[in-house]
Each structure stands twice: as C-alpha cells, then as structure tokens.
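Input record (one chain):
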Amino acid sequence: MESRQTPPGKALTIFRRCATLQGMEEMTYKSEYFSPAATLECGQVFRFFRDEERGGYFFFSADKACFLREEGEVTRLVCEDGDRAYFENLFDVNADAAALVEEAKSFGVPFLSRAAEFSKGLRILRQDRAECFLSFVLSQQNNIPRIRKMLFALCAALGGKKKFLGRDYFSFPALSDIAAKDEAFYRALGFGYRAKYIPRDAEMLLETDFSALGKLRGEGLKKALVAYPGVGNKVADCIALFAFGDKSAFPVDTWVERLYREDFGGRETDRAKINRFFTEKFGEHAGVFQQYLFYYKRETERG
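The corresponding structure, as predicted from the sequence alone:
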C-alpha cells in the first residue's frame, strides 16, 4: 500500500492503490470537508447518479468516470488507473476547505456562518471547460433533473460508449462532433430554444484559446464569456466559477435573490446590483460563499 500525508486542514489524507479491483485506484479523504452529496447535488455539475445499492455516486466528467461513497469520517473515490491526477485536480482536493469555512465565518454574518458550517463538505469543482460551458448554456430557464436528462441524451447521441465498475456510460462528445450537428438535431434531443446555441457555441469553442481565457478574472472574464451565444450574466458567472476557477464570480439565481431579500435585508431587484452587493461584500472568495449560501438555503427550506 502506498500512502502519503498532507498538512492539517487539507482534504487529501491518504492515497492507496485498490487491492481488490484490478485496474482501479482508490483515494480516501476526510468526509468533513468532502461530502459527495453536497459537492455533486449543489447544482454545479449534472452528469452523475446515485447508486442506492452501492450507497454512493457514479460521476462522469469528459471521458472519465469515478465512484464516490461517504463512509463515516471518510469519503472514498474509486477511478481507473491513470485517472487519479485528473480527479484530484477536478475535486481540488488540496484546497484548504477548512480555511475557506473559517474565512466565511470571519465576516460575522450569522446566516453565512450557518451556511458555511452546514456546507463545509461542499467542494468547488475545477471542471472540464468545454463540458461545463455547454452544460450551463443548457441550464438557463431550466431545472436540474431536466438539465441532467439533456446532458445524458447528448452524450448517448454523440459520445463514445464506455464501461466503469460494470456500468455502461457515454463520454462527453468532442466539440467537433457537437458543432457538426444542426439546430434540428438538438431540438429532437429536447433542448428547446437552447438548441440553436449548442452547435454555434461548440464551433466558437473550437477556436477558443482556453489558456488565454483562463488568465482573465472578474468583469474581464465575464465580458469575454457573454460574447458567446446564449450566455448571459448568470451563466457566465457559473462558467467562470466552475470551469475557470474565478472564485469571486457570484451567480445570482432565484434562490440567491430570495436569500438576498429574506436573509440579508436587500431591496434591489436588478440581478446585476445583487451580484455587486455580494461581490463587494465578500471579495475574492464570494463565489465559494455563494455555493454555501445557495446550498444551505435550498436544502433547509425547499421542504
């Protein structure tokens, strides 16, 4: 068994090669700061499903798959040999989650403090940029079950068939394959008015220098993102936060509008002004705190 220790406060605690599953690797983390449920079901990602029999989650990203299960004080992640680095990066396992929770509490805002404590197992993902981009284009005026259905349909139609832990799945399609289909194809998949954006965005993304785009932050990044068809301010903030690691990006949706009024005493109705209120108040990690606030509000009040 191979193992390694990391400094206190980090999520990653042990790495070991699976002895029982040939061709697989298993990593073990502190579940206090890595909850599969909070991380996957907070609305930042959509290609996953809960396996009740195994008591965990199958999660898919790009052309890869992993399985996550929380067992008491640990969260176990199983992936194929060679994919460990990909998933460690995606789940940002070396980010100091404890420090972010303490930073949130340091503002002295009772609602944020409660939200941070409740959501401390929620990790902000560093997603495949093309997949994240198109996922949030599909997310506009939509609900999570329908977004997930659309993405699984897209992958089944254009992705490659693969198998992981006995389960068939489809990889996220290549941008060139997505761009090659027309609007009618995506309307047939049930994308509605969003169908017109998908092939156009895929074509533009093929020409995008992701490295250069990833160097932008704040309003500069948002301005670049809203230049793509079907990307408004909220979608741009989601892409900036979840695909480009801009932790100051603060998406404003219905739940955030509601907590702004009910828990922060806000009176603005313009989402741009609500966004500015939170980003100016919470600074460089406002987007992380947005996820704490959103997840806490939704989970405790939706009944």
